[in-house]
Design goal:
Elements: E1 8-11, H1 17-28, E2 32-37, H2 44-52, E3 57-61, H3 67-81, E4 86-89, H4 104-132, E5 137-141, H5 154-174, E6 180-186, H6 195-198, H7 201-209, H8 219-229, E7 241-244
Parallel strand pairs: 1-2, 1-4, 2-3, 4-5, 5-6, 6-7
Helix pairs in contact: 1-2, 1-8, 3-4, 4-5
Bound molecules: NADP nicotinamide-adenine-dinucleotide phosphate.
The site of NADP nicotinamide-adenine-dinucleotide phosphate has 31 residues, from helix 1 and helix 4.
Length: 251
Amino acid sequence: MTGGPRKTAFVTGASRGIGAAIALGLAREGFDIAVSSTRADKLSDVVTGLKAAGARAAPVALDVRSQASIDKAMAAAVDALGGLDVLVNNAGIPLKKPALEVTGAEWDEVIGTNLAGTFFMSQRMGRHLVETGRPGCIISIASTHGLIGLADRALYGIAKAGVMHMTRMLAIEWAERGIRVNAIAPGRVETASRAESFTDPGYREWATARVPLGRFGTVEEIAAAVCYLASPGAAYITGQTLVMDGGLTAC
Ligand SMILES: NC(=O)c1ccc[n+]([C@@H]2O[C@H](COP(=O)([O-])OP(=O)(O)OC[C@H]3O[C@@H](n4cnc5c(N)ncnc54)[C@H](OP(=O)(O)O)[C@@H]3O)[C@@H](O)[C@H]2O)c1
């Protein structure tokens, strides 16, 4: 980013993993950042890293399943940074479970977090951008599980497919207001939340064998794509999902 006042971004689910890397990547590009976790005390390491990168950093508590929490977190982020230009909907939870066994509570939890949480955060960001007349952008982290079928991931995949279609719908609805809406669909990325799978040597071998580039993605690669989509260079991109999967879904 060059010249002008510093831009601001809100990265949800930034206590670790992909969200923490996105926040740091944006900070290195000159953004001031609000970061969230369901528990604000889990953000101290990330905040230290953001400050070391020269950014103003605002830790915010957020549970995307709660409308009241969304309103409170948005208000806190806007208040701390003086307004928001970019929202990154990264908060999400995995679920690996046969469809035959999924419960109503699990449906509410996964859809409530990954799909409804992304929608209502986007809605509040949309309202903020419209009210302030800012030409901002929204970037949501979807998944290749929303593009191709895989056993035991139905609920997660349904939510992520919804995120990608939401991206198209909101992009069209808000284009005339100068608001861009995009998504990124990563394939497998090695993060702590997926540790159980990644430490199983059988899984690692099976999963990488299906990827033409022969490896998993990294959190830094996802962060670099978010930085691009948030940059002026991506000003003509909206309603798109950038698939980052080492070629998995091109097969
Ligand atoms: N890792 C992969 O292979 C992969 C692949 C494709 C897509 N993705 C997507 O990428 C995103 C990040 O994945 P990750 O592996 O980095 O996950 P992670 O390490 O488990 O981090 C998830 C983050 O989301 C937050 N979160 C969870 N539930 C929340 C809720 N109800 N309200 C607000 N925040 C909540 C967590 O907050 P707390 O600090 O409170 O726990 C945490 O900061 C997710 O949307 C995931 O579906 C991941």
